[in-house]
Amino acid sequence: MVIAPGGHTVTMTTDEELRLAVDALGESILVVGYGSAGRTATTRVADGDLPATDAAETPDAVIVAADGSAVDANAAVELPETPTAPMCLAAVTVPNRPSAGEQAALDAIAERVDATIVATGSGVVDLTAAVGALVSIVRESGIVNIDLADAQTVFRSVRTGALCVGESSIGDPATAVENAFGTLAAGIETDPARGVLVDLVGPPGMSVADISEAVSTVRAHVGPNAHVIWGGSIDDSMADGIRARLVLAGVKNGRVAPGDRCPRCGSALSTYTLGERTIPSCESCGFAGVSVRLRD
């Protein structure tokens, strides 16, 4: 199924019908995979009931799916060829704070796309969920829609973002938002975020007031100047729950801490005391106390 502007749906039964229908839409998203997990996730997204495809010839946006934990940091990152599009994003899963190898992969991928969106996780299932959530946020119709223009707005002049999803019982959108923030990889700083897409999904009884509460909760986690764009949609299958899906543009990766992997060599960090200061350090390569941030 592909969701067209205005909420109309087009049902396809063959791959050729899928390609023709998506190309006919006012907006289309092409999802391509990098690596084995990325290619499998791409196929699952295209085959599922999501408004995206792996075969649009003239897309309005391209999403590159990659499992950061499976990328060989010592090998050249060669992303698949894609059509030129107004917006090219990479959705990359990492299991926790990026290791040295994962950071190298993120840096290499970032050089080839407009922005990299990091989601916590690893493997095909987590990557498929992350890409599916990202596509759904900007393409599904609802009470109030978020679209590709909104994504372009929050990612203007921003190179790094984060995706997080949380759920709670119906009537408690604030907890759903808090649970979403709780899934972010360790060390992700949301205060510097320049923009946020807030999408609330719930049963027919969900109201604009629920969305407003979710937005207020989000604002408590970001700076006062962050551009927050919100939307909401109804899911009849969520009779007793509510889901908050957030895309934060312009996040940072905070200082490393003892026990984290060294960003230079990947060994476990210990501590080094100099006078009254105690800083993380690496006994293997000599790294000490440097702030490690994702690209922006």
Briefly characterize the structure:
One of its GO terms (molecular function) is GTPase activity. The chain contains 7 helices and 14 strands.
3D architecture notes:
By secondary structure, this protein is of the alpha/beta class. The protein has three domains: 1-141, no CATH class; 164-254, Tubulin/FtsZ, C-terminal domain (60s Ribosomal Protein L30, Chain: A, 2-Layer Sandwich), CATH 3.30.1330.20; 257-296, no CATH class. Helix content is 26%, strand content 27%. It has seven helices and 14 strands. The protein has helices at 15-23, 35-47, 100-110, 123-139, 148-154, 173-181, 208-219; strands at residues 2-3, 9-10, 29-34, 61-67, 87-94, 115-120, 160-169, 188-189, 195-202, 227-234, 241-249, 252-253, 270-274, 277-281. The strands form four sheets. Strands 3-4-5-6-7-11-9-10 form an eight-stranded mixed sheet, with helices on both faces. It has a two-stranded antiparallel sheet with strand order 1-2. Strand 3 (29-34), helix 2 and strand 4 form a beta-alpha-beta unit. It starts with a strand and ends in a 15-residue tail after the last strand. Mean pLDDT is 79; it is low at 1-26 and 290-296.
